[in-house]
């Protein structure tokens, strides 16, 4: 069971792993237990999701948390987009959980 934070992990990765181990881990989950098989959605994950991102003409808004584990992906997508576009970084926010103004975890 992958339930330990790797030695030397950065603070964002550490918090991400600790959050999901407590709240979202299940031994039969593909993402939790690394049990990929022939019925897993490999085709979806191999699909080049950003292949035509530069061709989107509608206004674009990307919102990501300041401490989001996936922040780098949001920023990379933003750079590839054409105007009009906007990137919003939620202070103290995470992509994997809501942020309450009082700092309490609502889950």
Properties at a glance:
alpha+beta; single chain; 2 strands; 4 helices
Task: Explain what this protein looks like in three dimensions.
- This protein has 107 residues and is α+β, with helices and mostly antiparallel strands.
- Helix content is 30%, strand content 11%.
- It is built from four helices and two strands.
- A two-stranded parallel sheet has the order 1-2.
- The protein is extended and about 40 Å long.
- The mean pLDDT is 76.
Summarize, please.
This protein is an alpha+beta fold. It has four helices and two strands, in the order H-H-H-E-H-E.
What is this structure's SSE topology?
Layout (H helix, E strand, L loop, with lengths): L10 H13 L6 H4 L8 H5 L13 E6 L5 H10 L4 E6 L17
Parallel strand pairs: 1-2
